Amino acid sequence: MNAEKPKSQWKEIEAVWDGEAGYIARNSAGATVLMGKDKNGAPGIGPMEMLLCGLAGCTMMDIIDIMRKKRQLPVDFKVIVRGSQRLTEYPYHFTEYLVEYLLWGDNLFEKDVAQAVQLSEEKYCSVGGTLAKAGPIHSTFRVLKPGEAA
Question: Which residues, other chains included, contact 74 with Cβ-Cβ below 8 Å and sequence gap of 6+?
Answer without folding.
Answer: 67, 103, 104, 105, 108
